Amino acid sequence: MKRAGILNRHLAGALAALGHGDGVLVCDAGMPIPDGPRVVDLAFRAGVPSFAEVLDGLLAELVTEGATAAEEVREANARAAALLDARCPGLELVPHERLKALSAGARLVVRTGEASPYANVLLRCGVFF
Fold this sequence. Notes:
Layout: H1 9-16, E1 23-27, E2 38-41, H2 51-61, E3 64-70, H3 73-76, H4 78-87, E4 92-94, H5 96-103, E5 108-111, E6 121-125
Parallel strand pairs: 1-5, 2-5, 3-4
Antiparallel strand pairs: 1-6, 3-6
């Protein structure tokens, strides 16, 4: 058994299979999940695990070269907006409907137990070299 890092076997395996340019949607419990991408649903109950916990865990495991979130997060969820600004330098903001459309191209969806508006981000994988 792994001692540290991501212990969820489905998530660990999905992350290991990602390559340069692949998208990972980290979403709250209310985000529509597109058909197609692999889904790892971590939601246990409302708020557990939080968007912040899952995002921090993923960013510790992944190399990312970009991130996209809904522009509505600025008005509707100051806490999520501040988190995204702090964790995702160069964050691109698009209308929520555009984020949902972009999500269809994600390779992996990680659903959190977050129950607050617009706590969603599409990460774009980079390379470690």
